[in-house]
Amino acid sequence: xxxxxxxxxxxxxxxxxxxxxxxxxxxxxxxxxxxxxxxxxxxxxxxxxxxxxxxxxxxxxxxxxxxxxxxxxxxxxxxxxxxxxxxxxxxxxxxxxxxxxxxxxxxxxxxxxxxxxxxxxxxxxxxxxxxxxxxxxxxxxxxxxxxxxxxxxxxxxxxxxxxxxxxxxxxxxxxxxxxxxxxxxxxxxxxxxxxxxxxxxxxxxxxxxxxxxxxxxxxxxxxxxxxxxxxxxxxxxxxxxxxxxxxxxxxxxxxxxxxxxxxxxxxxxxxxxxxxxxxxxxxxxxxxxxxxxxxxxxxxxxxxxxxxxxxxxxxxxxxxxxxxxxxxxxxxxxxxxxxxxxxxxxxxxxxxxxxxxxxxxxxxxxxxxxxxxxxxxxxxxxxxxxxxxxxxxxxxxx
Length: 398
Prior knowledge:
By secondary structure, the chain is mostly beta strands. The protein has two domains: 2-48 and 318-397, Immunoglobulin-like; 60-309, Glycosyl hydrolase domain, family 43 (Tachylectin-2, Chain A, 5 Propeller), CATH 2.115.10. Helix content is 4%, strand content 45%. A hairpin with a 5-residue loop joins β25 (342-348) and β26. The longest helix has 5 residues, at 264-268. The two termini are 13 Å apart.
């Protein structure tokens, strides 16, 4: 069953074992699972080490949640844009004017739909009221997401050029809403959402190509999280210089590359697939956010979804403390620290039981904890320094 756990004001959703009222460690746990009920002091935030994880490293946030074959169900080649709204995935055909394929949340094909006048849609986004689509022209299409009919369109300034991909920022322009738009190798332009039924817009600002350094951009999803907001960009050119033509790259809130990338060809076994549309949102049946997209693969194109991250975990890097990776973890949790030597590490479960104690050599700055026998849930690692200080970190066991 799903449990929502409150941890210092932070909410985590995970699948927890119910043998201990949904919490904690199974009876075959490691040492010192006694009657102790002390729970080490909690932080107001959970800290995750996200500094340049290895390319394609195994992390729970990159677990493949689904992959649905598109073309065998629809009979239509060349899918491109994708968006999940009103319980359905909408997938457009890039070289098929006005054509959208509709799937349910399980990837089952429902129908092919004509949106008269919408053009050859490459991308979708939504402000919660309308759908907006880029069609590789200077005109953004505005679509009613319920009836799937075109409502109107608005044009972008000449400096923007043509709009292939589009994603929405609800907090942009003082909360009035903005769109990020662009094409294969352009600046990332932030444009104002037209007021009312306006038919044109203006540029608010942009992230220059020289700053973000990405090429072959086909899809983008904006993750709105205040100062920790980020852009997920689906590229037909690998920013690491590799040969893949379907790589997701992360940009931080300033538009700079973080070094985090994901090769969807390698993950999905599509070899020569091309990056298509990209979206981010909550999908029924899955906790937290799902980063989903379309990989164009001539005859066997795929709608895929990755686990983005556990809900409510705030990323923050600290200079003195414990760092854990991966988080969530499956069988092994890597713990590292800086500044102060650690002599002992403990793990406590969410009901205040100490479930593991291990001694650490004073000359090392990292340690691997085996999580065999741990039930799914939220745990806290406590490191004891040689100065008697406790430093803590939380993690989720998948």
